[in-house]
Amino acid sequence: MYICEEDIQKELDKRKPNNSRYSTNRSEEDRVVILSGVFEGKTTGTPISLMVKNKDHISKDYDNIKDVYRPSHADFTYDIKYGFRDYRGGGRASGRETIGRVCAGAIAKKILKSLGIEILAYTSSVGNIKLKNVDLSYIDKNPLKIPCEEATKQSIMLLDSLIKENNSIGGTAYCEITGLKPGIGEPVFEKLDAMLSKAIMSIGATKGVEFGLGFLSSQKNATDYNDNFYMENDEILKTTNNSGGILGGISDGSKITMNIAFKPTPSISVPQDTINNNLENTNITIKGRHDPFIVPRAIPIIECMVAITLLDYILINMTKKIDCVKYAYFNF
Amino acid sequence: MYICEEDIQKELDKRKPNNSRYSTNRSEEDRVVILSGVFEGKTTGTPISLMVKNKDHISKDYDNIKDVYRPSHADFTYDIKYGFRDYRGGGRASGRETIGRVCAGAIAKKILKSLGIEILAYTSSVGNIKLKNVDLSYIDKNPLKIPCEEATKQSIMLLDSLIKENNSIGGTAYCEITGLKPGIGEPVFEKLDAMLSKAIMSIGATKGVEFGLGFLSSQKNATDYNDNFYMENDEILKTTNNSGGILGGISDGSKITMNIAFKPTPSISVPQDTINNNLENTNITIKGRHDPFIVPRAIPIIECMVAITLLDYILINMTKKIDCVKYAYFNF
Amino acid sequence: MYICEEDIQKELDKRKPNNSRYSTNRSEEDRVVILSGVFEGKTTGTPISLMVKNKDHISKDYDNIKDVYRPSHADFTYDIKYGFRDYRGGGRASGRETIGRVCAGAIAKKILKSLGIEILAYTSSVGNIKLKNVDLSYIDKNPLKIPCEEATKQSIMLLDSLIKENNSIGGTAYCEITGLKPGIGEPVFEKLDAMLSKAIMSIGATKGVEFGLGFLSSQKNATDYNDNFYMENDEILKTTNNSGGILGGISDGSKITMNIAFKPTPSISVPQDTINNNLENTNITIKGRHDPFIVPRAIPIIECMVAITLLDYILINMTKKIDCVKYAYFNF
Amino acid sequence: MYICEEDIQKELDKRKPNNSRYSTNRSEEDRVVILSGVFEGKTTGTPISLMVKNKDHISKDYDNIKDVYRPSHADFTYDIKYGFRDYRGGGRASGRETIGRVCAGAIAKKILKSLGIEILAYTSSVGNIKLKNVDLSYIDKNPLKIPCEEATKQSIMLLDSLIKENNSIGGTAYCEITGLKPGIGEPVFEKLDAMLSKAIMSIGATKGVEFGLGFLSSQKNATDYNDNFYMENDEILKTTNNSGGILGGISDGSKITMNIAFKPTPSISVPQDTINNNLENTNITIKGRHDPFIVPRAIPIIECMVAITLLDYILINMTKKIDCVKYAYFNF
Q1: Helix/strand/coil (H, E, C) string of C68-120?
Q2: CB contact burial D246-255 (16+ within 10 A = b; e otherwise)
């Protein structure tokens, strides 16, 4: 297939801090270079290796956190696991690691698009502020990736006050997959929703994931919850989509819908009690400016992790029928 | 290690319908037999193969669902994926497949127990009925596995009325891991919470999973949410456990806590609109008696899936330090 | 696809001792039963679980080898690895474990046959006795699976004398794959010949594997060795097939050819010096009758291991081109 | 563990053409740079990413092979598999890909050395020229890595005449593992010799691999072949090592010994008949100077592939006994 750096760069650019007050002001240029796997614009089958150089990273920025475990960060758990830690920027617990997810996701998204499949994520709440309506065209018109002008205005006021307090807040994201055929996913341990959950929950700061009605399902009767199938103009449809597009771990042809919970950014510039790596009580005030709200920066990561997972399943699904195996063997 | 059929049978017995009104009355004997891997009571390193014969299964029970797709079941998605389906009992989408999970989980739990690690799950809500208090000793005193007498009584009244209406209801489960050392889990894609999410979400009827404060985290400020470390009597402690015992995908030594959402059992004995495998509109009334509330039967499955996942991570963790590799090579 | 017990049984029957003087006289009935994965004669996508009961196994047969390590057997290595061993019949080091290989191989062979691919193996030498000519029709006319009447007669005389001496002898097998398209295999670490080597060398008693000219290649100049391509009647052909049908780990459309070396059966009924599990010097005379020549019994195992490996690669190959991915997604 | 670029560079340097007449004269500098995974000289647990830039590669060198399939090269098989090929330098079928194997192997070798395990490979024949004696100190004193002065002299004369004819020749390598404890390896499909075979056969130009007596085993009686155990000074010893140090797929504490066959370098500067990618008959004379004998350059690759495989098995072996799992959990 055809792939170029620009295909990947445009996804990486979505991930960058958007020069607003509401995200870190590190100047992350994040230019991707293709090192292998593409020749004359086409993939050769060789693994595609990509490089994004870290230009902004200056070691001294991190000196005050060298020996102290920041609360609700992974400093302590990495140190106790490995007995040793690269304290500069959080290592693999840093948001920097998501660059790789976005690069892979950009390629997956391009293939999915050619199959008619789209993935869309947006910020669905900031603290207690919920969406009043959903206007998808508004997502890219505001730095918070909220599809609602009113909720955005309220959120901006809230974040302005949190910035003054050096505090941060959690929120939720919504993600949907449209255009996916029924029949994609695997039974038992590798259910599509199980693997999407793994993919989503591997993103830093996530604390929960749900499909369709999600936790609200627990309050429903079957007579209200069950999605009824019906035929209309030779199309298989459902009266409702409470299940969120997956039945028994396999896509049913409806939209796949997810909600994801994010905790507040743990890095805040107020003094916090904690311990150091000599196991002594101490406190820390984390320097620098940090995102008061992490969800907008997680939006492209969610889309990319979903894309990667989905593409894997579409490839796995190729072997589901012996007729497809035969056709592929004789024709490709 | 020593393992016998009784070690596994006692977990399987927890999975059986408990002869109450609130679960299916199929007489599932479910006796496990060890076929390989154990000699003179000890494991030999050979894969342990176990057999549980399905005695109750009678094909004619399923004749009325042969051609019709039950709403919110996996009949349709299996059929469209594979082009063919064993309609007797739901195949791999049936709750019968959880027997394997419990057998493996029983062995995992035995090993974890020898490491001082315990896993406990219980029903934490039935529809809108929440726990009033938590009395762990009450879990096994009621058929619903609820740790609260008052909530149990309310739930029984609710379920009695649902049975009359041939309806069912959703609920939630809570699960906690106690006694786990800090440092267990892996970075980036294989975070402990990511893999536990996958394990939990692979159980039928689950619609969401969250850790620690979970979705509530999204409404918190960092100053309220962050868990502060402190030392007391040479022990590393945290003032709170909002993160649910995992930081950066690695256990922090606190309890690991999860909530899980379950949809209502989709099998209900009222007429429902749907389609058949000729893609025609039709309706179905599912015969037989079904669980009006699935959570109690999922409780042992949750514990077992958590146990299997956790043990895998403990094995993976053995290679984290080169000193451990050396010690193991020279001494074992 | 359609699969029945007979499809598997006919391969299992090839594996049985052939009631000749030249193989063990254990009465191994080895009836296979399909336990899952097949419904109304067709596979459902569910893992196919098969059971072959071990009827002949009587524990007392093995009492004399309980504490003593038989020379050139795996008794010692299993015991030192696991600290414990099921001494009855060799456990996983026993030839009994090849039943599973044959069951899986039978299914793989059936699929490969539908793709026009055939796998053939035969005994190509017994000690120093080589083939004089190759008459494939003779393979099943003699208990040694040798495609040459003269070599068979010589071998039978040799084996008769070895039986009298309670001795055994090594030999070689030849295996070829015909009808395979070019383009099957993977680059670098997973080359087709690399994985076939692994598959073959995982069979007990194998000591070497080679492709095409094999070790003889090491004595050749490039001008003699290189296989030249040419076109004839729109077909891509090679003047020679010294490479044995694989170039750069990928099939080139010619026959894939392999030679495999087998050591003599280590179980012999003469006294041998060895040690026991108290690490004391001792000796052992292995009771019972054993195969004086193992290769004929390995022939079906070779075919099956090659079939399993090849089918895996044909499935993997389905994703080699994005056009095939698209076709499969939209049409199956 | 401590690791620095020099640890890796010294293995890479062994892989370079040795400025003799007997290897290609491309000036491959091959400097390795550690990009991630090491901090303050120690590994952090993060994947170690390494970069070796390809400085010598000039595209025009390869223009004459753009459309023509070189005999006994992978040009044809890559093209037919992927429908497209990076013709510059052979892509993943090029010897350049072995850099990654050596980098990983260097780290594996360092760890194995700390466990007392050494891996040694050398050239054991050049065409028909065999070793007269084995003098390990001579390996690094000659460009052919032959441990025998006489065989080296004969080989040099042979290679000189082959260079004049623009021809090349095959050969064999020998590899041994010393200092490995018994008990390393896995049963059935993942036998240590099976996986070593895969590792070795994944190296370009290999055509066969054998263990211990290898193909010669096929000519032996059990009474001559079987290795007898005996105790001496509390040590477990064997009278012979015909099995090559592996029994039932698991190391027995003796030297592990392998022989490997290599075909002649297929790139020769004489005209050869072949076809092009329009499937027309044509011929090719491959320009430039090429190794008349590839084995010396394969020697470090063999050592590295064996090291990687062995280290994997040592890590896998850590979980063989529950007591080791417990010790590791509580102490590391």
Answers
A1: ECCCCCCHHHHHHHHCCCCCCCCHHHCHHHHHHHHHHHHHHHHHHHHCCCEEE
A2: bbbbbbbbbb
* Residue B191: strand, helix, or coil: coil
* CB neighbour list of residue B244: distance below 8 Å, 6 or more residues apart: A207, B193, B211, B212, B213, B214, B254, B255, B256, B257, B258
CA distance C86 to C68: 13
Q: Collect all residues of chain C within an 8 Å Cβ-Cβ radius of residue D213.
A: 207, 263
Q: pLDDT per residue over A104-139, tens digit each? A: 999 999 999 999 999 999 999 999 999 999 999 999
Calculate the alpha carbon distances from C178 to C119, D75, D201 in Å: 6, 22, 21
Classify residue C180 by its DSSP letter: P
Q: Tell me, what's the pLDDT at D46?
A: 95
Residue B28 lies in a domain: no
User: Is C322 in Cβ contact with A187 (below 8 Å)?
Assistant: no
Residues 6 or more apart from B79 whose CB is under 8 A from it? B69, B85, B277
| A265-285 CB burial, b ≥16 within 10 A, e <16 | bbbbbeebebbbeeeeebebe
Instruction: Look at residue A163 and give its three-state secondary structure.
Output: helix
Per the structure, the count of domains in chain A is: 1
Q: Is A69 a residue whose pLDDT tops 60?
A: yes
**Do the domain assignments include residue A14?**
no
Instruction: Output the pLDDT for position B25.
Output: 56
| Longest CA–CA separation in chain D, Å | 70
Model pLDDT, residue C181: 98
What does the buried/exposed string (b/e) look like for D45-82 if buried means 16 or more CB atoms within 10 Å of the residue's CB?
bbebebebeeeeeeeeebeebeebbbbbbbbbbbbbbb
Contacts of A221 in chain B (CB under 8 A): 127, 162, 167-169, 264
Question: What is the distance between the alpha carbons of residues B170 and B330, in angstroms, rounded to a whole number?
Answer: 53
Domain of C90, in residue numbers: 58-330
Chain C residue nearest residue D258, CA to CA: C208
pLDDT of residue C146: 98
DSSP letter for D90, please: T
Short-list B144, B176, B175, CA closest to B260: B175
Sequence-separated (6 or more) residues with CB below 8 Å from residue B3: B34, B38, B41, B42, B43, B48, B107, B110
Residue D68 resides in a domain:
yes
ipTM of the complex: 0.96
Strands of the sheet containing D129-130, edge to edge, are C129-130, C118-126, C171-178, C256-262, C206-211, D206-211, D256-262, D171-178, D118-126, D129-130
**Residue-wise pLDDT tens digits, D100-142:** 999 999 999 999 999 999 999 999 999 999 999 999 999 999 9
Q: Which of C117-121, D19-23, D248-252 has the lowest mean pLDDT?
A: D19-23
Domain of D323: which CATH number? 3.60.150.10
Percent of chain A with pLDDT over 90: 86
Residue C24 pLDDT grade (very low, low, confident, very high; cuts 50, 70, 90)? low
Nearest CA in chain B to C35: B53
Mean pLDDT value across residues A15-44:
82
Chain B hits for C88, CB-CB cut-off 8 Å, are: 39
pLDDT digits (tens, 9 = 90+) for A187-197: 999 999 999 99
* pTM of the predicted protein model: 0.96
pLDDT score, position C90: 63
- Chain segment D186-235, per-residue pLDDT in tens: 999 999 999 999 999 999 999 999 999 999 999 999 999 999 999 999 99
Q: Would you state the pLDDT for residue B64? A: 77
Contact B46 D187 (CB under 8 A): yes
Interface test with D, best of C172, C190, C202 (most D CBs within 10 A): C202
Report, in angstroms and rounded to the nearest whole number, the Rg of chain C calculated over CA atoms. Answer: 22
In this structure, is residue B34 part of a structural domain? no
